[in-house]
Write a structure and sequence with these properties.
288 residues, alpha/beta, Rossmann fold, 8-stranded mixed β-sheet, 12 helices, 17% strand
Length: 288
């Protein structure tokens, strides 16, 4: 029965993917054309890391994440999945679940899985069945809370064992376009927002470090990294930090979101966001 349930949870998204084929469009910015998932996969031959920037409640986007992981793995068997949705300190728990040592119930509880874990479950189960590594890439909430209250320098005060879950310190605070974009989202510049922005930089630095560290140990592996699209749109945030520390990596980014112009896309309006743009039907019910 356990194996049957696993097969069902893997196969069900395949049927759903077929059903949503008319509910998304993928645009290749460089070649200025709409492409399929298969064409996207073939285009990634020289890519080391693909950033998938998502809207966390986009139902169609989550199904596409699964389909893209599956297609990348089929085309390039040395594939790993990196996720903003899990933290560096729960990596042993992720590995224990993937290895079949602990139950899903304990995994969800002890890994502090997001409330919408159901949206990411097909990815995790596919990884488990196909022995794909999953990287818990993000910084733990207890550390980001410290930064939000006291700034990035407070991380230097942590015990040595705690710092093992953190990227190299000090963490630089990005300036320029990313900062301007962030403060615009929050509605202005003030000291409170600056500490929140430092938290954003902490997340970015931790995810970039997690990816780089994994690739250093597993050369030749393609990494599909999932994060909220603010972290990678316009090649800023996490992507920029990864590129600054791992200059030889070939990185592509994809921005996925529902759009009001879905029926007649204005691709020129979106093309600055990434190498590939996926717009999904805004009429589809959100996952939460």
């Amino acid at each position: 029965m356990k194996h049957l349930l696993t097969i069902i949870c893997i196969c069900l998204p395949l049927f759903i993917t077929a059903q949503i084929s008319q509910q998304y469009k993928i645009y290749d910015v460089k070649n200025q054309k709409v492409i399929s998932v298969n064409e996207l996969t073939r285009d990634l031959e020289k890519t080391d890391v693909l950033f998938f920037g998502e809207e966390h409640n986009d139902s169609v986007g989550h199904i596409l994440e699964f389909e893209i992981l599956k297609q990348i793995h089929i085309a390039y068997p040395k594939t790993a999945l990196s996720m903003e949705m899990f933290h560096t300190d729960v990596q042993p728990i992720i590995n224990e679940y993937l290895g079949g040592y602990i139950s899903e119930k304990n995994f969800i509880k002890e890994s502090r899985a997001w409330n919408n874990y159901k949206d990411y479950r097909p990815l995790m189960e596919y990884a488990k069945v196909n022995e794909i590594d999953v990287i818990g890439a993000n910084g733990a909430a207890r550390y980001s809370n410290m930064v939000s209250k006291s700034g990035l320098d407070v991380l230097n005060t942590l015990p040595k064992e705690s710092r093992s879950y953190l990227p190299p310190l000090p963490i630089d605070t990005a300036t320029g376009s990313y900062y301007n974009k962030f403060t615009k989202e929050l509605g202005g510049h003030n000291m409170g927002n600056m500490k929140i922005y430092q938290t954003q930089n902490f997340w970015d630095a931790t995810m970039a470090w997690s990816i780089a560290r994994y690739i250093k140990k597993h050369k030749g592996t393609k990494v599909l990294h999932l994060n909220g699209r603010f972290h990678s749109d316009e090649r800023l945030g996490t992507l920029a930090k990864l590129k600054s520390t791992s200059k030889k990596l070939i990185i592509s980014n994809l921005s996925c979101f529902p759009s009001a112009d879905y029926n007649n896309p204005e691709w020129g309006k979106h093309k600055h966001l990434g190498d590939y743009i996926i717009i999904t039907d805004p009429g589809i019910k959100k996952s939460f």
